[in-house]
Automatic annotation (TrEMBL):
Species of provenance: Paraburkholderia humisilvae
Membrane topology note: Multi-pass membrane protein
Superkingdom: Bacteria
CC terms in the record's Gene Ontology section: membrane
Pfam assignment, any one: NnrU
The protein, known as: NnrU domain-containing protein
Main location: membrane
Tagged with keyword Cytoplasm: no
UniProt keyword annotations, A-Z: Membrane, Transmembrane, Transmembrane helix
Cell compartment(s), UniProt: Membrane
Length: 192
């Protein structure tokens, strides 16, 4: 569990600098330049992600059960994850209703993904992993909305054609991941 926690600290720590130390972040970017900042940020993120995957794989060998997930949990997780997969491209695609209404759809997608996986996995290592991502997403969303209000950000209205593009892209990615890659990469086939 130590490797998993270390990975979470590094990965979520890197992704939390803007939440908790935006002034320091801006000073570092001014000091070393945006390219170097992005390189350091990316390096920390990759190291953290590798440690998360490795640590979770080790922790899964001897899971400590906290509760038995309800029988409906995998189905709800599949639905929440599908929505999350749609919100990811919607966050990077200008002109969607998802962006104009939700403001930060990718962070909401992370929260839905984490919540779904918390419901479907009743082990201590799952609570640590998915709970950490859920808590991070809540803090990140609140910080992003504060930044939006301070900067008086107005998101442009969306179009249904852009929404459809996000839905199709997210749904295709979800099908590929849920039916093919999840079992191969994670070792669990969520939909049989």
């Amino acid at each position: 569990m130590t490797i998993l926690i270390l990975g979470l600290l590094i990965f979520l720590g890197a992704h939390s600098v803007r939440i908790f130390a935006e002034g320091w972040r801006d000073a570092q970017i001014a000091r070393i330049g945006e390219k170097r900042w992005k390189a350091a940020y990316s390096g920390a993120s990759i190291i953290g992600l590798v440690l998360i995957i490795w640590g979770y794989a080790i922790a899964r060998r001897e899971p400590a059960a906290l509760w038995a997930p309800p029988i409906w949990a995998p189905h709800l997780t599949a639905l929440l994850t599908l929505i999350a997969f749609i919100l990811f491209p919607a966050a990077h695609m200008p002109g969607t209703h998802f962006k104009s209404v939700l403001k930060h759809p990718m962070v909401i997608g992370v929260a839905l993904w984490a919540l779904g996986h918390l419901l479907a996995n009743g082990t201590w290592n799952a609570v640590v992993l998915f709970g950490a991502f859920l808590v991070w997403a809540i803090f990140d969303f609140a910080a992003a909305r504060r930044r939006d209000r301070a900067a008086q950000v107005v998101y442009p209205a969306g179009t249904f054609s852009r929404d459809l593009m996000a839905i199709v892209a997210g749904a295709i990615a979800w099908v590929v991941f849920a039916f093919f890659l999840h079992g191969w990469l994670i070792g669990v086939k969520p939909l049989g």
